[in-house]
Write a structure and sequence with these properties.
The chain is mainly alpha-helical and 293 residues long. It contains 13 helices and no strands.
Length: 293
């Protein structure tokens, strides 16, 4: 089979995955409701920035030199928490939730495989002259594109709610998008492999519910690692959601103060994570599909 035929085969299967997504606006809506609720409820209610602000009536009673010192202390606290005194908690959290949207999209890639099996479509594909790798890659690519779309929708929803962006140029934004896409590739490969190996959809749902919240809370999506207990910080450092959230914040919130090398370092970590899970996931899933014949 030529390279062009392989590409056509992969594109046809991926197009089907995207068509299923775009033809079901209810599914799109449901998949962004949860992150949107987190932004609207948790992001606004848990106003850490407001806790650090000194009321104006208190500042007016203080001598000017004390007011200046208090303001410096507050700014330094905000810089340590959110990376910059100009970043509020809502913006910090909303941008981090883009990584969570990608996590949910990775789960959906596995569920798509599960539904194809239940409806008999997977058996038809396996009986057709289609490469196993193309079937798996189409699921992974479809879920990754969906993840990128959902992450963009989260930012669009957050904009009228008070999200304040300071993009670090076109290169920074492109690196953030590539980082999210890499994260989606890795996660969807992992969950697609789990779906192929574990045929019971009840077990898949239980595994998803078991993993989604621990992965989110054991990361730097909702809060910085500086306020985490010491035992949780290494877990957050190893969690790819932390690096995806950091990359998005550096690219979208801190303006030109962020060095391109810092963005590249985060992107490379996500690329390494994605490459390892993509390779391992596809190998595991391919072997499992061979036994279906």
């Amino acid at each position: 089979m030529s390279s062009l035929e392989l590409f056509s085969e992969l594109w046809a299967l991926t197009e089907r995955e995207l068509a299923k997504f775009l033809r079901s606006p209810v599914i799109v809506l449901m998949m962004i409701i949860q992150p949107a609720l987190w932004i609207g409820l948790f992001g606004k209610a848990f106003n850490v920035t407001g806790l650090l602000r000194i009321p104006e009536e208190v500042l007016e009673k203080l001598p000017p030199y004390v007011t200046q010192q208090v303001q410096q202390i507050v700014n330094e606290s905000l810089r340590r928490l959110f990376g910059s005194p100009d970043v509020d908690y809502f913006s910090y959290m909303a941008v981090g939730m883009a990584a969570v949207a990608v996590l949910f999209a990775g789960f959906s890639g596995g569920m798509s495989m599960s539904w194809d099996r239940r409806l008999g479509y997977l058996e038809k594909l396996l009986a057709a002259p289609v490469r196993r790798e193309s079937i798996l890659l189409a699921k992974v690519l479809g879920a990754s594109v969906r993840g990128l779309i959902q992450a963009s929708l989260i930012l669009l929803i957050a904009a009228p709610m008070g999200l304040r962006l300071r993009p670090a140029g076109a290169a920074g934004v492109a690196l953030a998008a590539l980082g999210l896409f890499a994260l989606a590739l890795g996660l969807s490969s992992l969950f697609t492999a789990v779906t192929v190996r574990v045929k019971s959809w009840e077990v898949q749902m239980a595994a998803m519910n078991l993993l989604n919240l621990p992965l989110m809370f054991a990361s730097r999506v909702l809060y910085p690692s500086s306020i985490m207990p010491s035992w949780l910080r290494p877990v957050a450092e190893a969690n790819p959601l932390s690096h995806a959230a950091d990359l998005c914040r550096e690219a979208l919130l801190y303006g030109n103060s962020v060095a391109l090398t810092s963005l590249l370092a985060e992107a490379l970590i996500l690329a390494a994570f994605s490459g390892a899970l993509l390779l391992g996931g596809l190998l595991v899933a391919r072997r499992a599909l061979e036994t279906v014949e």
